[in-house]
Amino acid sequence: MKIAFICGSLEPGKDGVGDYTRKLAEELCKKGHECLAIALNDKFIKQCADFKDSTLNLTLTRIPFTFPEKERLKILEAVVYAFEADWISLQFVSFSFQPKGIISTPFIRVFKKISGDIKCHIMFHEIWVGIEQKAHLKHILWGRIQKARIVSLMKSVKFLLITTSNRLYYLKLSQVGIKPFILRLFSNIPIIKSTKVSLKPTSEVLIVFGGIHHGAPIEDFAKEVSDFSKKSGRAFELIIAGRSGSEQVKWQAAWERYQMPVKISGEIEESGISELLQSSTIGISTTPINLADKSGAVAAMRLHQLPIISVARDWLPRGHSVNNAIAPDDIFDYRGGNFETIYSNLQTSLGNNSVEEISKILIESMEETIWPV
């Protein structure tokens, strides 16, 4: 099968969806398919760039954002038809294609034309802004425009396969007549076997990696962990790994305030992250639990079979008063006073979210999809 993936950027390590797209395409090539990955609005190059990996049967085409949209879409159309794709897979983040995340009429028109000749899939990595209960009026109105353009896209283009990564987006899309199925994110951090990884430590090693989101109740959490440590005699260590951002200082200070050890790894390679995950016993997510399924850090923790605790700010979508219907089943939601209960019920995440498994599910779905009569 020949599959053309379309995303915003393909600069390695600079765009999460771009990294996802590249890894997915590479895995499908290993399975015997031929893939093309197109960056339609790449901010990291000044001229069109093409790369052919003959060993993988993978072609990368990067179109710079400095080109006018009309020209970028013309190049996209030409490249897709020259490739003679069986499927187009649009990896959708509205801000990847337009600065304000408002899909243009020319964008819709080109995909409408393509979908008349080639089977089309869309993966919703993001939807529209302003869905949070505490959203400002500006974002609510902005989101309404984005939503209207997404609905227009979906009505105009014959997407035969629609997916998203989480229950919240599934619900929001369903409310506007778009019916996706959930395709879990695979981990961008593969399990890399290493002789450096020892047996699981006698103490508990908690790990948080990637960007730490603001508003997490780290002071309360650290105090509860410390109190439980004294009560149980169990030691707790914290590892802060990767590019954590400005919140790292707060986390480190809170942990050290209760005389618990902290290790700061800084930005490291994939193999180093995998080693740290394999050496840890509990994963900590700072992404609001209702959005945790779209977190790359959570996907990596799942693959490395860590139980996961969400230590994050309150975040509820408008129209919902509880998390029950949309929060992941395999993540424990920390609330002040419940750490001991969580700890006594910890269990690892269920299911296989490796790129091998997720790509298999996607390709099987494509193979089962036929043109409507």
CATH fold name of the largest domain: Rossmann fold
Number of domains: 2
- Give the amount of beta strand, in percent: 15-25%
Nearest-angstrom radius of gyration?
A: 22 Å
Tell me the overall shape: globular
Q: Quick one: CATH class of the largest domain?
A: Alpha Beta
Can you say what the CATH homologous superfamily of the largest domain is?
Glycogen Phosphorylase B
Main beta sheet: strand number and arrangement?
8 strands, mixed
Oligomer: single chain
Describe the protein's architecture and organization.
The protein folds into 2 domains: 2-186 and 355-368, Glycogen Phosphorylase B (Rossmann fold, 3-Layer(aba) Sandwich); 204-344, Rossmann fold, CATH 3.40.50.2000. 37% of the residues lie in helices and 20% in strands. It contains 12 helices and 14 strands. The strands form 2 sheets. It has an 8-stranded mixed beta sheet with strand order 3-4-2-1-5-6-7-8, sandwiched between helices. Strand 7 (159-164), helix 6 (167-175) and strand 8 (181-182) form a beta-alpha-beta unit. The radius of gyration is 22 Å and the shape is globular.
In short:
The protein is α/β, with parallel strands linked by helices and 373 residues long.
Which SSEs are present, and which pair or pack?
Elements: E1 2-7, H1 16-30, E2 34-42, E3 49-53, E4 58-64, H2 69-83, E5 87-92, H3 94-97, H4 105-115, E6 119-124, H5 137-156, E7 159-164, H6 167-175, E8 181-182, E9 204-209, H7 218-232, E10 236-241, H8 248-257, E11 262-266, H9 270-279, E12 282-285, H10 296-303, E13 308-310, E14 331-333, H11 339-344, H12 355-368
Parallel strand pairs: 1-2, 1-5, 2-4, 5-6, 6-7, 7-8, 9-10, 9-12, 10-11, 12-13, 13-14
Antiparallel strand pairs: 3-4
